[in-house]
Design a protein that fits this description.
The protein is globular. The protein has a six-stranded antiparallel sheet with strand order 5-10-6-7-8-9. Strands 1-4 form a two-stranded antiparallel sheet. It has a two-stranded antiparallel ribbon with strand order 2-3. The protein has six helices and ten strands; from the N terminus they run H-H-H-E-H-E-E-H-E-H-E-E-E-E-E-E. By secondary structure, the protein is α+β, with helices and mostly antiparallel strands.
Length: 207
């Protein structure tokens, strides 16, 4: 995927975050038809393995720029949306929205508590990939790439993916919402070895 395309696919501005979920959906009408605005459930006990299970529900589902709502039928219900439009209302998170939900974060940036969002709860959260990379938000810190664990993340200025499992050769199996043409899945990536990427950790895990 060309760098410019990745940037386009994953960079979400505050303007678009403000508008996400309120714009008129078109194309497949996935969000308008299926998604909700339910309050999250506070969860005092959170594990990395449990978070991986949450992430796997999104595997094989769609990708939506600025999105954050998906089902669990192992198909992209909103393929081929225009990649230049964050308001198409299709299925899926984008890279940072997917991370926000899997890490069970609060919409309040000063709140580091764990908040469980339903799959069909359409929410992106306040963070872009770039902001995750910088450790913005009370739950998030930058971390040494050599110390990263399962469900920590690797982030660049334009993309973020979580470590599903490290590989023996220094690459990782990354679970990520990659782009309109790719959806959400696990791929072997070399982010850990790339100078464009830094380590990011969600703090506060129970185990
Ligand atoms: Ca689906
Ligand atoms: Ca889509």
């Amino acid at each position: 995927m060309a760098r410019s395309h990745t940037f386009l696919a994953c960079f979400v501005t505050a303007f678009f975050l403000t508008g996400a979920g309120t714009g008129a959906a078109y194309h497949t009408q996935f969000v308008a038809t299926n998604c909700n605005t339910a309050a999250p459930t506070p969860t005092p006990y959170i594990t990395r393995s449990g978070s991986a299970t949450v992430a796997l529900r999104a595997r094989y589902e769609g990708y939506q720029w600025a999105g954050g709502c998906w089902n669990n039928n192992d198909r992209d219900d909103s393929p081929n949306d225009p990649t230049s439009d964050p308001a198409t209302g299709g299925e899926g998170g984008d890279c940072s929205g997917f991370t926000f939900k899997v890490w069970r974060e609060s919409l309040t940036e000063s709140d580091a508590s764990f908040q469980q969002w339903g799959m069909l709860r359409n929410v992106h959260g306040p963070y872009t990939a770039s902001r995750f990379k910088s450790g913005h938000g009370a739950p998030n810190i930058t971390a040494s790439k050599s110390a990263l664990l399962k469900m920590d993340a690797l982030a660049s200025e334009s993309h973020i993916g979580m470590i599903y499992a490290p590989n023996a050769d220094g690459t990782d199996q990354i679970i990520e919402a990659k782009g309109e043409a790719y959806g959400t899945n696990i791929w072997t990536r070399t982010y850990r070895g790339s100078s464009s990427y830094g380590g990011v950790r969600r703090t506060g895990w129970s185990s």
